Amino acid sequence: MKPAIGIDLGGTNIKAALVDTQTTETLATMSKPTRDGDFEGSTPRFAITVREIVEAFEARVGQKLSVGLSAPGLATPKGTCIDWMPGRMHGLEKFVWADFLQRPCHVLNDAHAALLGEVWAGAAKGTQDAFMLTLGTGVGGAIWGGGRLLKGKIGRAGHLGHVSTDVNAACDLFGTPGSLEAAIGNQTIAARGEGRYATTLDLLAAYAAGDAHAERVWLESVRHLAAAIASLINVLDPEVIIIGGGIAVGAGERLFGPLQRMLDGFEWRPGGQQARIVPAALGDSAGCLGAVFQLLNDATDTSSARR
After folding, report:
1. Residue 134 and residue 45: Cα distance in Å, rounded?
2. What is the C-alpha to C-alpha distance for residues 34 and 47, in angstroms, rounded to an integer?
């Protein structure tokens, strides 16, 4: 057994897993509140909690362990820290985790980590080309191309929620007009639903009950998603598209059914080739597993999924 620790540092909770790197088996898990905004002296409380989790796992196996850590924001190219994360997760920017933990630690973006988890042990295992969308408060994304995680020049690659599906609509937080995030993310449900639904799950419940207004709002959102996916298929030519996040889990077939029917009309399928659309397989563990997978890649200087 060769254990390592995966940490998924979120805005609300810190999820952690002790992982056997030889089998991808999760040996133990832990979850603690993030307490964003709390500090002990100049140190963010979430950093102290991460250290406590690491020490608890190490006590379990009786040895010091390497750590993979995923978090929101843009990571430095060498994975030393999150270089850019304005507005929340106070104290995260420029925080060098290996120095604080006094252990090897590779840091990466949380959406990148979720996809890598699916590549290593989930819905994209064995693939060379895939992308992932996570539907929640916003819309996250990540790209696996040619057996490598696509990061781009500054780590910005994979922000698929900020592709435009309506150039005449209002701009989102990143300046994108009519973004996919605005079309289906939970943060815009009040505006899209004309104030009738507090959350997307409320909208889905009304849709399931046969409410005509809810049906119209939901299927319009799915239509934007299908158009974005069809466009991304043309750009990236994936074997599989993975859809995860709280909205996807809550919607189930109410998402995947109409989405597939719309893609039957939108997707370009030369020679009958069709990209598969599948739900994410790993749930809350994806980020932890992906952080460990990237840690292993960092140690061996490879991004191959055939490990």
Report:
1. 27
2. 9
pLDDT at 87 over 90: no
* Domain ranges across the chain: 3-114+284-300, 128-280
Which fold does the domain 3-114+284-300 belong to in CATH?
Nucleotidyltransferase; domain 5 (3.30.420)
Given this model, what pLDDT does residue 205 score? 97
Share of the chain above pLDDT 90, in %: 93
Residues 265, 163, 268, CA angle at the centre, nearest 5°? 25
pLDDT of residue 305: 41
> Which tokens hold the place of 40?
């002990």
Q: Residue 185 and residue 199: Cα distance in Å, rounded?
A: 10
Pairing of strands 148-149, 139-145: antiparallel
Provide mean pLDDT across the span 176-180: 97
Angle 21-24-25 from CA coordinates, rounded to 5°: 110
